[in-house]
TrEMBL record, chain A:
Superkingdom in the source lineage: Eukaryota
Gene3D superfamilies cross-referenced by the UniProt entry: Metal Binding Protein, Guanine Nucleotide Exchange Factor, Chain A
Record-linked InterPro entries: Mss4, Mss4-like_sf, Mss4/transl-control_tumour
Annotated Gene Ontology cellular component terms: cytosol; membrane
Name under which the protein is recorded: RAB interacting factor
Keyword set includes Acyltransferase: no
Entry annotated with the keyword Transport: yes
SUPFAM superfamilies documented for this protein: Mss4-like (SSF51316)
Automatic annotation (TrEMBL), chain B:
Record's keyword terms, sorted: GTP-binding, Lipoprotein, Membrane, Nucleotide-binding, Prenylation
InterPro entries: P-loop_NTPase (IPR027417), Small_GTP-bd (IPR005225), Small_GTPase (IPR001806), Small_GTPase_Rab (IPR050305)
Domain of life: Eukaryota
The protein's name: Ras-related protein Rab-8A
GO cellular component: cytoplasm; endomembrane system
Residue ranges the record marks as coiled coil: none
Length: 124, 208
């Protein structure tokens, strides 16, 4: 899931918003309807989606730069919000609980979905 | 941004520690995902959207942070809750007996008209059953609430239970709206689009 190859977000955006629906890359659960997220380009590192079972090692993070900004948690169709850790909460798929697929503030308002970590359905 | 739903209901899961509340809300996972970052820190709540007769209902479902172990569930946790799932474990008599204590706790801390439902979890463990289905039904009748046996492990009746509770809250809410606004009777049904503005109760209840 954490592929590092360049990927182009432009085809996913229309009017600055997500053109298609956003679904879980693993189980296809509907996360966000079209047009409900605003494209934001900013650098944020998120913990990896999978952690090695022999988790003696430090948690690894992946730098990410493309996000759908969502103004509050109620905008999502289905999502899980983690408990707080170091001033942040993390977003997960509500069905299979894979994550973090993004993060949100402690007040559950500003949410950022990592575009690379979800499936963006754009029918041409 | 336009409102994208008709109703938002805050729901809680209450019951003794170990009855399976966390598993009811979260995926019953014994597999590879146990090792992820997320399962280490735990989930606070989930947003679920369901469609009910063409209305879009958002459910915000909260898990406890384990406070039930110390019976320290307080007013803060109950604030704004519109529905509560009272959960016991059908293989654990004590958890069933404690339901009445939880109901008392709810009466002391939650809003008086919160909708409640009784759930007997782990119903797939028939050979270890300690509480008969009839006793569950009887207790529910006593409190005038609905009852279901569920299994978080085998996904039996879990979605149905949430749907049932949501439907009952919706019915109650619509009745209340009608009562407080009798002019919006049947003749108003002609209105083309449902109002995009949040009704007052929603503004009040979503201050979470
Ligand atoms: N057999 C069975 N075990 C369950 C079920 N739901 C939860 N459990 C188990 O019960 C234990 C307690 O579950 P948990 O969700 O942590 O309970 P909580 O303390 O109420 O949140 C765990 O070992 C779960 O695996 C179920 O439907 N069937
Ligand atoms: Mg728990
Ligand atoms: Zn998923």
């Amino acid at each position: 899931m954490e592929n590092t190859e360049e990927f182009d977000v432009k085809p996913l955006i229309s009017d600055g918003q997500n053109k298609g629906s956003v679904r879980c890359a693993l189980c296809n659960s509907l996360i966000l309807n079209p047009g409900m997220g605003e494209y934001r380009s900013e650098e944020t590192a998120l913990p990896n989606m999978r952690k090695r079972k022999d988790a003696e090692c430090e948690e690894e993070e992946e730098p990410l730069s493309d996000f759908w900004f969502v103004r509050n948690v109620y905008t999502f169709e289905n999502v899980g919000i983690s408990k707080a850790k170091e001033g942040k909460k993390y977003l997960t798929c509500a069905d299979c609980e894979i994550g973090p697929i993004g993060w949100c503030t402690l007040a559950n308002d500003d949410c950022y979905v990592a575009i690379k970590r979800v499936k963006n359905i754009v029918s041409s | 941004m336009a409102k994208t739903y008709d109703y938002l209901f805050k729901l809680l899961l209450i019951g003794d520690s170990g009855v399976g509340k966390t598993c009811v809300l979260f995926r019953f996972s014994e597999d590879a995902f146990n090792s992820t970052f997320i399962s280490t820190i735990g989930i606070d709540f989930k947003i679920r959207t369901i469609d009910m007769d063409g209305k879009k209902i958002k459910l915000q479902i909260w898990d406890t942070a384990g406070q039930e172990r110390f019976r320290t569930i307080t007013t803060a946790y109950y604030r704004g809750a519109m529905g509560i799932m009272l959960v016991y474990d059908i293989t654990n008599e004590k958890s069933f007996d404690n339901i009445k204590n939880w109901i008392r706790n709810i009466e002391e801390n939650a809003s008086a008209d919160v909708e409640k439902m009784l759930l007997g979890n782990k119903c797939e463990l028939e050979d270890r059953r300690a509480v008969s289905k009839e006793r569950g039904e009887q207790l529910a009748i006593e409190y005038g609430i609905k009852f279901m046996e569920i299994s978080a492990k085998n996904s039996i009746n879990v979605e149905e239970a949430f749907f049932t509770l949501a439907r009952d809250i919706r019915t109650k809410t619509e009745k209340k709206l009608e009562a407080s606004n009798p002019s919006k009777g049947n003749h108003q049904l002609k209105a083309t689009e449902p109002s995009k503005k949040q009704p007052n109760w929603l503004q009040r209840c979503s201050l979470i």
